[in-house]
Amino acid sequence: MTLMRLALCAGLCVLAGCSVVYKVDVPQGNLIDKVMVESLKPGMTRRQVALIMGTPSIQDAYHQNRWDYTATYQKRGGRIERKTLTLYFDDNVLARFEGNYFDKRDEELLRTASRVRGREFDLDELGSGKKKRPPGGG
User: Fold this and answer.
1) 3-state helix, strand, coil in the chain (%, to 5)
2) What rounded mean pLDDT belongs to the chain?
3) What is the pTM of this model?
4) What's the average model confidence in pLDDT over 22-38?
5) Which helix or strand (DSSP H or E) is residue 93 part of?
6) Taking the CA atoms of the chain, what radius of gyration do you get in angstroms?
7) Which residues contact 3 (CB under 8 A, 6 or more apart)?
8) What is the tens place of the pLDDT at every residue in 85-101?
9) What are phi and psi of 113, to 5 degrees?
10) pLDDT, tens digit, for every residue of 70-84?
11) What DSSP state is assigned to residue 45?
């Protein structure tokens, strides 16, 4: 009788564990933020652009005067969002750029982390690595 109860409990635990599937957020590609895009200025060299933006996702051999930064983001198994920022060069100098990027992703990640960890972060202090102190000096 005890052995049968133990087997039944083990079986229920296995079934319960199989029914819950946790899906994670999946960011891929060049995740570009607002500060990076605001730093781009026409007249910058390719090297200066690469220092700010990193290497592009796509460097097409047939369109050597164009860099494409592509990113996708899928939130917990949901719909995949795709963003592409395209930079155009004339004589190895940035001429213009167009497209879009995930400009709110950093703020969303901080809000999620705050809820999970019970901490509050200040976006202005993000670069300094400081944590905003809770009221009461804790």
Assistant:
1) 35, 25, 40
2) 77
3) 0.59
4) 83
5) strand 93-99
6) 23
7) none
8) 999 999 999 999 999 88
9) -65, -40
10) 888 888 888 888 889
11) B
| Type of residue at 73 | Y
**Which one, of 94, 95, 98, lies nearest residue 86 by Cα?**
98
Q: Is-contact 56 66, C-beta < 8 A?
A: no
3-state class (DSSP) for residue 76: coil
One-letter amino acid for residue 108 of the chain: E
Residues 6+ apart with CB under 8 A from 72: 26, 27, 28, 29, 80, 81, 82, 83
What is the rounded CA–CA span in Å between residue 96 and residue 59?
Answer: 16
Task: For tokens 């290497």, name the residue.
Answer: 55
Residue-level pLDDT at 138? 46
Mind giving me the DSSP string for 49-72? Answer: HHHHH-S-SEE-TT-TTEEEEEEE
- Is residue 72 within 8 A of residue 28, CB to CB? The reply is yes
Instruction: Tell me: pLDDT of 102 over 80.
Output: no
For the chain, list the domains and their CATH numbers. Answer: 22-103 (3.30.1450), 104-138 (no CATH)
